[in-house]
Specification:
heterodimer, A: about 450 residues, alpha+beta, Alpha-Beta Plaits, five-stranded antiparallel beta sheet, about 20% strand, globular, B: about 240 residues, alpha/beta, Rossmann fold, seven-stranded parallel beta sheet, 7 strands, about 50% helix, about 15% strand
Chain lengths: ~450, ~240
């Protein structure tokens, strides 16, 4: 269950950074909870280690493995309200609920995240323009604080703690269970269109005509083409299929498209990325194709490093960012473009906001990559955007605090016995020389 | 499918029960902790169990076994399958210092199992169909210095099951000896995890499949069968010097 590295230490999905925890403590039952105040170091909940950077890591501290808290509690067939323990993975919810005609309100790029992690990172999916974030669908949860209190939080009860915990990076206490709304589906299939576009403007055109009528939209993009078109790519849009006849057709078990993250970095050089993107683009021959696919491959490619910029500055920001990436010679293997909608999350520290979001993954190439990403941060900041903490391992404290001006308000709800590598990195005052290393 | 599960809150039992729940089975769950029993029964209900009835019992309380089994039969109407999965991995060092502790381990892991099996065997023999699966252990295949009290109990259970299997085969009832190796559960939380550790979900699937097929002796995962064949073949003169 626990995503432990060869050293027996909790890791994040990007396998960077690698840190040592002083202790890993498993929690097996809600009726046998540890006294969190007795730990001498700060604690942080951890389940499947699907965040990419260091927001799920707690160097020198205690990692509380909640992946054994993976029991369902109740399900209301009439309203779709599901209550389950925080370590239940979204994959398991799909496995149990899809055959009965229910689907997750929000599906992220990987389904192997825990419910607790989905709330703590206030995750989003390809239907953000229609459904908002995961936190928008949470009705209540129970939070264990280090003073032993167990607080049920909802929009009307302990509401500030409710808002702080959604997107709160696991710092406000341990979510023991949560309740949220599933949505009904007729069958497990998605009607999906692939449409090629050859410029950012064209992307905006297709996006404008699709967002209204399609539940799911996202685009794969090739950034390395250069020129005034900025990018080309394939716009994917989908809706849940409505055919009752398909409801009984079994979905083949298939492994999600998993890109190997421990791939030696030389494999991801500019040439291979170009080749991959060339193939991906031309693998689709016609301008537009339509097919009905099982929900698996549609939802779960893997991604890394993500920012959002407001629509007003999107064109200019994209121009600058894409130019900068091209000049650096660093390739992004899988790049995903999407429009975030206007539905506001209750979360105080939530990342999604109206605008254009781009998710990239770079092979870690040492200081060269860090330098590039720090420059991207600067452009995002100038454009009034933000970078996604769940995928970050290197943004500076200054950048974080500018991206999330509400962080000080949020900080008062942090449990005094909780901390993370990420939080210390982006809030603790550093000397000038340490900042320079990051830049 | 109507299934009685003793030791229902054990990780292996719960993982097995999830497969029965998915099939819409009717379950009768027995364990000694009310809180955990409630957690497990709620989970299995959401996963599709048509029924998930609970019975609070410390299985060391042998006097109540008959009442528990009668209640199960009464509640579900009859029994198709039984999984006996309760047990403790006692501290070998403590047992060596204490007769009482040793006997307690033997009661939990052997005597209580034999008590349940004695009552259930007669029920299934009369019914002439069904399946009884018991979680024994690879530890029962050979006495080792590191855990021979636990191993003794499990080995005795395995031998009892051999005889029972032969007897009940006449009545068309399957008796399954389940021999898991190292499984990553709360019971083994204090042990250092290595490559040989299996996830309880995998072991649960193996048990479920064996019960549906009416197997005899299964090792879970499968590679423990050749491993234990080798362990059993080592001469005693050599084995006694090995620190396993």
């Amino acid at each position: 269950m626990l995503s432990l590295g060869r050293t027996g230490q909790p890791q994040s999905w990007g396998r960077y950074p690698k840190v040592q925890h002083s202790q890993v403590q498993s929690i097996y039952w809600r009726s046998e909870l540890p006294d969190l105040s007795r730990f001498e170091q700060p604690v942080l909940p951890y389940a499947y280690g699907r965040s990419y950077g260091d927001s799920c890591l707690n160097e020198g501290g205690i990692s509380l493995d909640i992946s054994h808290l993976r029991r369902f509690i109740s399900f209301d067939e009439n309203t779709g309200h599901l209550r389950c323990e925080a370590g239940v993975s979204l994959a398991e919810i799909l496995e149990v609920m899809v055959p009965r005609g229910w689907f997750l309100p929000v599906s992220p790029g990987t389904r192997f995240v825990s419910v607790g992690g989905a709330i703590a990172n206030d995750i989003h999916g390809k239907n953000h323009h229609r459904a908002g974030t995961f936190g928008c669908h949470v009705t209540c949860f129970e939070l264990l604080r280090s003073n032993g209190e167990r607080l049920v939080c909802s929009p009307s009860q302990n509401s500030e703690l409710f808002r702080a915990t959604i997107g709160g990076l696991g710092l406000t206490g341990i979510i023991l269970w949560a309740e949220f709304r599933l949505k009904p589906i007729i069958n497990p299939y998605i009607d999906m269109d692939h449409i090629r576009f050859s410029s950012l403007d064209e992307f905006f055109e297709i996006s404008a005509e699709s967002d209204q009528d399609y539940e799911y939209t996202m685009s794969w993009v090739d950034l390395l083409i250069g020129g005034k078109n900025l990018c080309r790519g394939i716009f994917m849009r989908g809706n849940h299929n409505q055919s009752r006849a398909l409801a009984s057709k079994p979905v083949k078990k298939r492994l999600p498209l998993a890109l190997p993250f421990n791939f030696p970095s030389f494999v991801l050089n500019t040439l291979t990325v170009k080749t991959f993107n060339e193939l991906f683009y031309h693998a689709q021959l016609g301008k537009s194709i339509h097919k009905i696919v099982p929900y698996d491959p549609f939802f779960y490619p893997l991604l890394q490093y993500q920012f959002v910029v407001p629509f007003a500055n999107a064109n200019e920001a994209m121009r600058e960012i894409l130019g900068r990436i091209r000049r650096s010679g660093e390739g992004s293997f899988l790049t995903v473009l999407k429009k975030f909608g206007a539905i506001q999350s209750p979360g105080m520290l939530s990342f999604p906001r109206p605008g254009l979001t781009l998710a990239l993954d770079f092979a870690y190439g040492g200081s060269k990559t860090l330098k590039l990403l720090a420059e991207l941060d600067r452009i995002v900041l100038q454009s009034g955007g933000a970078v996604y903490p769940a995928k970050d391992a290197r943004m500076s404290a200054g950048s974080f605090q500018a991206f999330f001006p509400g962080w000080k308000e949020f900080a008062q709800y942090i449990d005094p016995h909780f901390s993370s590598s990420f939080w210390r990195r982006v809030t603790e005052v550093k000397t000038q020389s340490q900042e320079l290393v990051v830049l | 499918m109507k299934v009685l599960i003793a030791g229902a809150t054990s990780a292996i039992a719960h993982e097995t029960a999830k497969f029965f729940a998915r099939d819409g089975a009717e379950l009768f769950l027995v364990a000694r902790s009310a809180d955990k029993l409630e957690d497990i029964s709620n989970d299995l209900r959401v996963r599709g169990a048509k029924k998930a009835e609970t019975f609070l019992l410390d299985l060391n309380d042998l006097d109540r076994h008959r009442q528990m089994i009668e209640t199960a039969i009464e509640t579900l109407g009859s029994l198709d399958m039984v999984l006996i999965a309760h047990g403790t991995l006692g501290d070998q060092q403590l047992c060596q210092q204490s007769v009482a502790k040793t006997l307690e381990e033997l009661t939990t892991n052997f005597t209580s199992v034999i008590s349940l099996l004695t009552i259930l065997a007669n029920y299934f023999e009369q019914q002439k169909h069904g399946c009884i699966a018991v979680v024994s252990s690879v530890a029962g295949d050979r006495g080792r210095r590191s855990n021979y009290v636990y191993g003794t109990a499990k080995g005795a259970v395995s031998i009892f099951l051999q005889g029972l299997r032969s007897r009940l085969s006449e009545s068309g009832v399957a008796v399954i000896t389940v021999k898991p190796g190292l499984v990553d559960t709360p019971m083994t939380a204090s042990l250092k995890k290595g490559l040989l550790f299996a996830q309880p979900a995998k072991v649960g699937r193996g048990i479920y499949q064996a019960m549906m097929k009416g197997k005899e002796v299964i090792y879970l995962p499968w590679f423990w069968r050749p491993i234990m064949a080798i362990v059993k073949s080592i001469p005693e003169s050599v084995f006694k010097k090995m620190s396993m």
